[in-house]
Amino acid sequence: MCADDSQMYLFVRxxxxxxxxxxxxxxxxxxARWMQSxxxxxxxxxxxxxxxxxxxRLTQLSNSPITFxxxxxxxxxxxxxxxxxxxxxxxxxxxxxxxxSSCFHQLRGIKSSLKALPQETAKSxxxxxxxxxxxxxxxxxxxVPQVTLDRLQSVMNAAARMLCxxxxxxxxxDLLGNGLHLLRVPQRIQL
Length: 191
Known about the structure:
The protein has two domains: about 15-75, no CATH class; about 90-190. The chain is about 50% helix and about 5% strand. The protein has helices at about 15-35, 55-60, 95-110, 120-135, 145-165, 175-180, 185-190; strands at about 65-70, 70-75, 80, 85.
């Protein structure tokens, strides 16, 4: 719970989602009453809810909307929480896609001024604007499939090639370890 952000989590079995929806609405109503009694406002149009399960179990959950404060809330497939996009199957594919897109955007910006920068400054820029993006909350990615981590590794490889001014087909193993002192993505997650 933060000053302007509250989250509730309910654990239910797939065949008993109706009582869970009622419990959720009961909690939301209690929060709305408390906020109103303390002269605060709850904005139902900004209220989101999501049902999470494994990809196989997700089809067994109800996808019916719930009504809160007279507004119908449709179930979200992904929500953003402290900068991390959490999807309903907890695969983090949406989050990784956003991080990869953002990192490549930053790399393009750095590459445009790379010739004018000293090597150490370019390394610092890559660390600040690229590496820090996939280090943020990366422990959430522990256990995701290797294909998902490979997308993040492609960003790291592109950054290494750009900093060492080698071609797109050059191997980056030596560049990451010896030249730039960067860990591979799975190792960064484990640390």
